[in-house]
Specification:
292 residues, 7-stranded parallel beta sheet, globular
């Protein structure tokens, strides 16, 4: 059996959001090399690079706008073998209080609501035994402790109802980046046996990266520092998450490649899983006899 046959992507339609940078770009490149027909979603006016590998088509959308989500859903081809949600934005505050000027609502729309809504719009375009793989974050580690709030939000009937709920819960979405990632973990865990997935054996899984050297690294640095100093913020992050184990920032490939495996035939019996890809750091939050 050759590698392409093992993964099962050859001549298959796949959709990748966030495909023009970071983990999404790494995933899209590997999918292309494995013979997939890659449909790459790109923000209309966002920062992104050029793709140096062949894809089937570029689809433009602002994932924070419901109208763009609807248009994107209409443009997406039928017979999708796999969908990879790799998009996301950072919160422009330290996440302790909600204040005018915070992009918390935009973070909730882009990082969470777009994924949940787009899945509902394109589920009938995904093949039986297909897969949905979502990039969340190790920042969503405490989702179980916050499951009640995650469920309350996701149980709202419509996209607009969910937006209204967010606007009524500023205390929770003050930490919108973390809360959105908690909600993604909850969504995957809670929906593995949702009839719209299990009846057609569509797998849904979530990858939670640790500190990764992507375009968001700069944003995390600026917004971690109370003064907006990127270098200071990155130093704070590294002091907590990197230096204690003499570690390093992961590369986009160290997240994008496992994501491709997750959505492939190799993991055809895995669904409803929230995998933390952080070199075991999250384990130390449970039991840490060697963490200094």
């Amino acid at each position: 059996m050759d590698t392409a046959e093992l993964f099962g992507y050859k001549n298959k339609n796949v959709l990748v959001t966030g495909a023009f940078s970071g983990m999404g770009k790494a995933a899209a490149r590997l999918l292309s090399e494995l013979g997939a027909n890659v449909y790459a979603v790109c923000r209309r006016n966002g920062r992104h690079s050029e793709l140096d590998f062949p894809i089937c088509r570029i689809l433009h959308a602002d994932l924070g706008e419901k109208r763009d989500l609807d248009n994107l859903a209409d443009e997406i081809p039928d017979n999708l073998f796999a969908v990879f949600f790799c998009h996301g934005i950072a919160l422009n505050s330290q996440g302790t209080t909600y204040f005018e000027g915070s992009n918390a609502m935009e973070v909730m729309k882009v990082n969470l609501l777009s994924t949940e809504y787009l899945i509902s719009r394109i589920i009938n375009k995904i093949e039986d035994s297909g897969s949905i793989s979502i990039i969340a974050s190790s920042g969503g580690y405490n989702w179980k402790e916050n499951a009640e709030n995650c469920q309350e939000l996701l149980d709202q009937e419509t996209y607009e109802d969910k937006l209204r709920w967010c606007d009524e819960h500023h205390d929770l979405i003050a930490s919108a980046y973390v809360f959105s990632k908690e909600c993604l973990n909850f969504y995957v865990t809670a929906n593995a046996f949702n009839p719209m997935f299990i009846d057609r054996k569509i797998r849904i899984n979530c990858l939670n990266p640790g500190n990764t050297d992507t375009g968001l690294k700069s944003d995390f640095g600026k917004y971690t520092s109370v003064t907006g100093n990127e270098a200071e913020g990155l130093d704070m992050i590294e002091e907590i998450f990197i230096r204690p184990w003499n570690g390093y920032w992961a590369s986009p490939e160290q997240m994008g490649y496992p994501l491709v495996c997750m959505g492939s035939k190799i993991f055809s019996y895995m669904s409803g899983q929230t995998i933390f890809m952080d070199y075991g750091i999250s384990n130390t939050w449970l039991y840490n006899p060697y963490w200094f």
